[in-house]
Amino acid sequence: MVKRGLVRKLGAGVVSLVLLLMTVWATAALCFDVRVAWLRVPCAVVYLLAVAAAVLIPKRFWYRVAGCVSCFLIVLVWWLSLKPSNDGNWQADVSRLAYGKVNGDHVTIYDTRSCDYRAEFDYTCEWPTMEVDVSQIRGMDLFVDYWGSPWIAHTILSFDLGHNQHIAFSIEARKHVGESYSAIRGFFRQFTLISIVSDERDVVRLRTNYRKGEDLYLFHTTATPAFARSLFLDYIHFTNFLHDHPKWYNALTSNCTTEIFTLKTMSTLQRNWTILLNGKGAAEQYREGNLAGDGLPFDQLMKRAYINPAAKVADKDLEFSEKIRVDRPGFH
């Protein structure tokens, strides 16, 4: 009897904790995602009053649970009904959505981004059209950008077109004018996804030379040319999808790394926990043999892969991509 009573108390405690987390999330969703700003706090207050009534009025525990869950489900159904849009007053650097047209091995990519930076928020953007011969893609490289926690990073994939030319894809949160990225807001329906297609002198140099507190690491992958070409076309199709079908960004489930692993070509790679905690992804990919490192222990490879100093020296040099690869393991 004592054991049974203890199990019941533990079970009730677990259920109560889950309900608490559900209530916190739903309250935050109302505070962030109600589209009429002055209604956010009143909606959150009404929700909390409803949850309080569900907890205080019924005498039976499971009636209380049912009441709390019902309140949560009402908020969840509303939240899931929110639709993303490509219309908006977007920041200049994300004002256009790239898209590509595929004709055999020839791909024409429109509205690629090429920003000339004077400071992080002081820049002039051009949107050139790029012509890519997919048959010339020789491989691909991985950039990992840390801005705080070693567990979370931003990933950028760059494809080697030969002749020291590279084209990079950066899947990001698209921001409106006056908006800044917030990890907490990233768990709600605040941002849509954008696939930025650019040369490395834009998306890489922005992070190494102009933003503060960001550390960028460059790894050469062991991908075969065939794998890289297939993944490049997957990226083009995904970029086209976002151009025509807006999609919500989510810091946990739909971000710069999780979206990569939804691409068809990536289905051949093993899934693991580092897809969510992507700051540890490079170490795992190296262990699995997907990153080149000339046999170095990973901690030494990381030190050699750090490119901020080289990027600052190269800066606006037209050979930026070539110079940040000099003496990096795996690049020959």
Describe it for me?
The protein is an alpha+beta fold. The protein has two domains: 2-81; 92-323, no CATH class. Helix content is 38%, strand content 20%. It is built from nine helices and ten strands. The strands form three sheets. Strands 9-8-7-6-10 form a five-stranded antiparallel beta sheet, with helices on both faces. It has a three-stranded antiparallel beta sheet with strand order 1-2-5. A hairpin with a 2-residue loop joins strand 7 (154-162) and strand 8 (165-174). Helix 1 runs antiparallel to helix 2, helix 1 packs parallel to helix 3 (61-81) and helix 2 (40-56) runs antiparallel to helix 3 (61-81).
Question: How would you sum up this structure in a few lines?
Answer:
Helices cover 38% and strands 20% of the residues. It has 332 residues and is an alpha+beta fold. It has a five-stranded antiparallel sheet with strand order 9-8-7-6-10, with helices on both faces. The chain has a three-stranded antiparallel sheet with strand order 1-2-5.
Q: What separation lies between the terminal Cα atoms?
A: 70 Å
Number of helices: 9
* Bulk shape: globular
What would you call the structural class?
A: alpha+beta
Total separate domains? 2
Strand proportion: 15-25%
Rg, rounded, reads 23 Å
Major beta sheet, strand line-up: 9-8-7-6-10
